[in-house]
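Section 3.1: Structural characterization of target chains.
Under the original work plan, the team committed to producing a structural model for every single-chain target entering the pipeline before any wet-lab resources were allocated. The record below documents one such target. The sequence was received from the expression subgroup and is listed exactly as submitted; it comprises 359 residues.
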Amino acid sequence: MSPHDRSLPGRMPLPHRQKPSRPGVKHISLALQGGGSHGAFTWGVMHRLICEPRLYIDGISGTSAGAMNLAVFADGFIKGSRQGAIDAMAAFWGRIADLNALPRSFLRGIPGLSDPWKVDADPTFMMMDFIARIWAPTQLNPLDLNPLSDLLEDLIDFEALRAHPDIKLFVTASNVRTCKARLFRTPELSAQALLASACLPLMFKAVEIDGESYWDGGYLGNPAIYPLINECASSDVVIVQINPMNRPEVPVTARDILNRINEMSFNSSLVSEMFGIATVSSLIESGSLEDERYAAVRFHQIGAEAELAKYGALSKMNTERPFLEHLHELGFDTADKWIEENFDRIGWESTLDVRDSYV
């Protein structure tokens, strides 16, 4: 997003991608994964990217926490350009910290007794995890209360956001009945759409929109890549990865096994989609596919897999302010390093080996 032009380019034929509006400015699209409070890492990444005057964001696709990040980001940009986006995301994550329902336990308050960020062995988080596996959301929360609903309505002007269809935003949710992904574009965005994209079925009742019930979009698109390719002008897609693809060891404890199952489930749709893209790209590069409807897409990735993998599944429920600030700093520094190392390659070549990472 340029600070001088708040509009984002619309759909264009793939062979005729839009060139940067100013010399030296490079266009990218963002794909934001979901991952609970680990979405604060994405907050840091987006903070650094919007501070970079040489980058212009054509479109953003996101799921769960990624969906909330993109909506808050775009709303803030509409209201106050680059600084507005920065301030809006800081306000959102600050409010998330204010809602923290799982305060630091006594055990984790003793220096040296446990890792301050890894909460899998914390009694409070263990109890919440246990309860969620015994009782359904309709039993635990019969009134279907969700503090995120009021927070989103308070922070985001959805009517103004929907009035900017030129801003290319894509939010994915999973249809419970049909097992199909639902893509909400900018004119369809609402607090309910964001809550649907972030609806973990063991914690919240399915979100109903237009007579259909939805769960977390991560099951079927985490995030969806195809709209960034088909409906945005940039040929460079940056994936902000927060769910670890690789782990050095095979899990043996019940909790670690469930954690890895969760990671594999929430990465599977991305892996599947990227496999298809890699296949088409290889055909284009080899000259076997000369259909003008297809054009090569360059992929990039910003992530801190080794660092995020250390925290465990329950840390995604940890919204303590110091933890969120730590993730923000990690995301900002990771994006800063990525820009320094890869900026010159944007627009020319992929900095992510798609086959090695996803195939």
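Confidence is low (pLDDT under 50) at residues 1-21, 109-113.
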